[in-house]
Amino acid sequence: MAAIEPTYDELLARTDAPAGxxxxxxxxxxxxxxxxxxxxxxxxxxxxxVQTGEVYALDLDPEVxxxxxxxxxxxxxxVTWLGNVGHDEILHNYNTQASSQWDGFRHISTRAQEFYSxxxxxxxxxxxxxxxxxxxxxxxxxxxxxxxxxxxxxxxxDATDVTACLAAQGxxxxxxxxxxxxxxxxxxxxxxxxxxxxxxxVAEPMTTCGLRAGVSMVRMLWDLGIAAVAADNPALECxxxxxxxEPGGPEDTFMHFQLLPRLGLPIGELWDLDPLADACAADGRxxxxxxxxxxxxxxxxxxxxxxxxxx
Length: 311
Fold this sequence. Notes:
- The chain contains ten helices and 13 strands.
- The strands form three sheets. The chain has a nine-stranded mixed β-sheet, with helices on both faces. It has a two-stranded antiparallel ribbon with strand order 2-3. It has a two-stranded parallel sheet with strand order 6-8.
- It is globular.
- The relative contact order is 0.23.
């Protein structure tokens, strides 16, 4: 493939690899996918954005949501004594995707059970991301402030909503950025009673706002040139899968199929974006230095982001 990255429409026209895929675009670095777009100059660009030194942690408490969604295990902790001088702590039933998370490339394959770039399943662990390091410019699209969203239903957010929000904020996405999309889901979740949270965890189906799956959304995300995308809702896209999906695209009912095993675009879910969004709205600066330290868990399927926005 050409040294200049192809457009998404050019990827869809590929005959030398699966249509709509970036397989072979980064020879020898397939385990990083779009994180290959984070280069030393992108890190320097990010560092230059720090003006006040304010730091915003972007992870939820690892025991939130509580109860966990999608029938995932609830984290259990044992604090043990070290003789009579201190403590150790043991975690049980720790599902790395029950709270704020990066979906790694082992999380979802294609329908044909192919993982990103054809690399063997176990070779796609998040430890590669940890070894590479994730430090780059972050950009927030605060769609929840831009237009009304109902987080409790499958309220779809279109590609035009995201791009119009960015334009209204006066911020431009650059190659190698991580795009954060605030939908207001965690704000809504915090407003629920204990009974409401318990009901949500067992709802069949659970319904949440999210990006509208389909070619238009995938095209927008790829053509922006981002290294990753993350949001404050449970699945990035509308839930249940396929609700309000744009028809006519490949495997259009579930956008994870295109983003993870085809494009190699990391997906962040359940990020805590509310305090950061308040700060951005207060001074009109929607870009910042973003760091993330995934677990160096060999062959890991996913990881908490351990993410910080530094302004």
